[in-house]
Amino acid sequence: MNSSGRALGAGMLLGESTVLTCAHVVQAAGEEALSGAHVLVRFVGLGGMPETLATVRPGCWVPPSDDGRGDIALLDLAEAFPHVPGAPLVRLGAVRDRVVHTYGFPAPHRYGVWVNNAELAGPAGAAGEWIQLNSPLPGERVRRGFSGAGVIDKATGAVLGMVVTEYTDERAGLAYLIPVEVLVRHVPDVARWVGEPPRPSAGPLIVVIGDRDSAVRDGFLTQVRRERRGSRPDRVPGERLVAIVDAAGKTTVEVAEHVSAGISTGEVLTVLQTHPEDVAVAVTGVEDARAPEEVLTAVVRPLVDKGATVLVQFTGPDSPGVHLARRWENERNARRLDRLALLVDMVEHEEDRAREQVARLGSRAVVPGSSADLRLRLAALRSAGERIEPGRVRRALAATERVAEAARWELVRLSAELDALAARHDELHGRLRGYNAKATDAGLMEDEELAELYRPAMAALATRPDEPEAAAGLVERYVRAVRRRLEGA
Q1: Residues 476 and 427 sit within 8 Å (Cβ to Cβ)
Q2: Are 34 and 26 in contact (CB under 8 A)?
Q3: Going along 146-267, which residue ranges are E strands?
Q4: Using an 8 Å Cβ cutoff, are 245 and 280 in contact?
Q5: In terms of C-beta distances under 8 Å and separation of at least 24 residues, what long-range contacts does 417-424 make, across chains too?
Q6: What gap in Å lies between CA 74 and CA 60, rounded to an integer?
Q7: Could you give the CA distance from residue 240 to residue 229 in angstroms, rounded to a whole number?
Q8: pLDDT tens for each residue of 451-473
Q9: Nearest Cα residue to 91 out of 416, 402, 488
Q10: d(CA 469, CA 458)
Q11: Which pLDDT score, from 0 to 100, does residue 231 have?
Q12: Rounded to the nearest 5°, which phi and psi values hold at 447?
C-alpha cells in the first residue's frame, strides 16, 4: 500500500515474516521503497485487518527486464505472523487446462475481490517464463491490482504461481502468471517454501457394513492405525482420545453428548484444532438412532471435517444413512484423486527436469522413472468410480500418495545435487575464463607455461562437467600462475 492507503497490488505470505510479490508493485510505492524505506502491508481477511511495515530482502530483488522477465521481490515484515498459514507453493512447470482462482485489489475494491474458474492456457511471454491465464467472461477478470496475487489450484488448494501482468484489452480477459518453477529460478530463497499440495483437511470416514462387534471389537484402533499410517505415524490415537458410542435409540443430541463424554469435551476441541489425527470416534448402530441422517450430518460430519477419524457402523447395505455416508466417502476420494493427479504431474515434471540436468552435465546419474507407473495407478483409481468399495479406493489412494511423495522428494534431492554440481562447474569455468581474460589483457597470450596450465583445466571442465572437483586443482594452478605473472609484471 502507498502512504494514502491505496492498494498497489497483492502478495503472498510464505513464512511467518516473508511476503512474495511483484517487483513492480514495490516500485509503485516510490523510489524510497527501493532504497530501504518501508512499504505498508495489510492482511485482508484477518480480524481487524492488521498492518505492518516491510522492506525488500537483500538479494531477493529481481526488477522486470525490458521483455517482462523477472519482476519478483521478497519482503521482510517488521513483525512475524506465526499463526497465519503460508501459501502452499508447488513447483509444476507449465501446465494447461487447470481451473484456478485468485484474489486481488483492483479499483474500486478496497478490500479485494475473487476471480473464480479462470483457466491456465499454457506457456507464454519471453522465453516461455509466463503462463497464460484466461478469466471467464462476463464476470470479474484478472486485471490491474492483482499483480503479486497467488494463483490457487481449485481442485487441491495448491499455489501454482503469482499473477504478474494483464492484457489490457478488457474484452479478452487475458492475464499472465509466473509459475513457481520460474519464481525459484530467479529467487532461490523461494525454494524454502516449495512443497507438496496440501493434504485434504478432512479425516478418514470408515463405513463398516456388518454387526457391531465385528466393527469395533479389538479392531477399531487397528483400523485407525491403518488409515493413519504414513500421515503421522508417530501419533497414534491413545485411549483417552477414543470414543465408541452406540447410537441405537438415541437422539442426535444424546449421541453428541456420549461422544463428548467419551473423550472430554474441552480436550477434544483443543486437540481437533492442533492434532486432529489424535481423535478417533466409532458410532455404531447408526440406522437405529432416532434420526440416522441427522446423526451423520450433525455429529459425524463435523468431526470428520475437522480431521478426526470416524468409523460408522450399519447392519446392512440398505440401512438408513448408508447412502449418505457412502456419498461422503466417494466425495473425499474424488478430492484425493485431484491431489494425487497434481502429485503425479509434479513427479513427471521433476523427472523431466532431472533428465535435462543429467544431459547438460553428461552425468552418469540414473533418473528414477516412477511417473509411468504412477500414471497407471492413477488411471486405475479413476476408473474404479463407485464400482469398488470406497474404503479400498481410499487405502489405495493413500498408498499411491506415499509412493508419489517419496518419488518426488527423491527427484528433488537428485536435482539439488545436480544443481550444486552445475553451479560449481559454472563457478570454476567462469574463474578460469576470467583469469584467462586478465592474462590476455596483460599481453600474456603467448606465454607457453600459462597455456600448458590452461589447456588441461579447460579440458577437464569440458569433458566431465559432472565432476567439477576433478578440475578444481587444475583451475587453481592456472589462477595462481596468472596472479604471479601479473604481480611480477
Answers
A1: no
A2: yes
A3: 150-153, 159-166, 174-179, 205-209, 242-246
A4: no
A5: 417/365, 418/354, 418/357, 418/358, 418/361, 418/363, 418/365, 418/466, 419/357, 421/361, 421/363, 421/465, 421/466, 421/467, 421/468, 422/357, 422/360, 422/361, 422/465, 424/468, 424/469
A6: 6
A7: 20
A8: 999 999 999 999 989 999 999 99
A9: 416
A10: 13
A11: 52
A12: -70, 110
- Locate 132 and state its grid cell: 497464460
Please give the Cα distance from 98 to 342 (Å, whole number).
Answer: 10
Residues 473/475/478/484 CA torsion (nearest 10 deg) = -80
Q: How do residues 333-377 score in pLDDT, each as one tens digit?
A: 999 999 999 999 999 999 999 999 999 999 888 999 999 999 999
Q: How far apart are CA 277 and CA 228, in angstroms?
A: 8
Q: Name the β-bridge partners of 53.
A: 40
Give the residue carrying C-alpha cell 596468472: 482
Share the mean pLDDT of the chain. 85
Give the DSSP letter string of 15-46: ETTEEEE-HHHHHTT-HHHHTT--EEEE-TTS
228 is written with which cell numbers? Answer: 493413519
For residue 218, the Cα-to-chain-centroid distance in whole angstroms is: 39
From the number of C-beta atoms within 10 Å of its C-beta (0-12, 13-18, 19+), residue 109 rates as middle
pLDDT in tens, 288-327: 999 999 999 999 999 998 888 899 999 998 999 999 999 9
Q: What are the DSSP E strand ranges found in 229-343?
A: 242-246, 280-284, 309-314
Q: Which of 389, 386, 333, 387 is nearest to 208 (CA)?
A: 389
Cell 527486464 identifies what position? 65
* Residue 143: C-alpha distances to residues 132, 149, 279, 410, 440 (Å): 13, 11, 45, 39, 53
Burial class of 189 by CB neighbour count within 10 A (0 to 12, 13 to 18, 19+): middle
